[in-house]
Amino acid sequence: MNKKMIACALGLIVAASVAGCGQEEQTAQVVQNTTQEQQAVAANATVASSTAANVLQNTTQTETQTQVTTQAGNVTSKGYKIEEIDGITYVDGVLIVNKTYSLPAGYGPGKILDEVQAAFNQMQQAAAREGLNIYISSGFRSYNTQNALYNRYVSQDGQAKADTYSARPGHSEHQSGWCFDLNTIDDSFSLTPESAWLEKHAQEYGFIIRYPKGKEAITGYQYESWHLRYLGVDLATKIYQSGLTMEEYYGITSQYAD
Ligand SMILES: [Zn+2]
User: Fold this and answer.
1) Considering the entire predicted model, what is its pTM?
2) What's the gap in Å between 227 CA and the centre of ligand 1?
3) Could you give the number of structural domains in the chain?
4) pLDDT, average across residues 181-202
5) What CATH code is carried by the domain that includes residue 102?
6) Structural contact between residues 151 and 172, judged by C-beta atoms closer than 8 angstroms
7) Is residue 67 very low, low, confident or very high in pLDDT (cuts 50, 70, 90)?
8) Lowest mean pLDDT among 7-11, 63-67, 140-144, 235-239
């Protein structure tokens, strides 16, 4: 099995095991000194499940989109068109998921989108030519998976703390298939040459570091050197060169309603 296959299988296993049964107790005991997100990924990676594909199929929706519920002409504070189609928010045609904008519970491609995976493969090869090793450690997560993760973090740390590092169900970008976490999902990743390389080059492959350092109040999340969002080379390069977060670039908020 090559690395890509392992990464893919890991995503499937995590989704199935967390959503499907009570692995939480084991998870809490297995891994120490890592971020909460890494605990779940690392522990669940050991749990094989032949039902993974079936679970994901059941959570995958068709991409038929017909119901536009926001009237044309609505714009963000920066003047970008914002519309909601079948419960999904698009700004200037780009799918947005953050604390303000959620995805419907049943929505999800079931895996990282092919376009995103292909761009990652290119980036991975480029990094390898520099002697660097990057790999996907968490990709797609369903609504149910996120629900289980978030509830565990709330019970561990309380809701206020959990909200700084874990999305509420429906509010995780991982449910969209447009993002992934790389390597060790931990603050220590920011100190690696891989992270330094990504900070300089990710946009060349269509990715941005979605939750940059010092922007916690704007994105709603602590710095996550490992979480990359795919936007395509043109848009990712524009946002990178602007020095802005996605929220600032588009003029949108990231705050829960309650
Ligand atoms: Zn992430």
Assistant:
1) 0.74
2) 4
3) 1
4) 97
5) 3.30.1380.10
6) no
7) low
8) 7-11
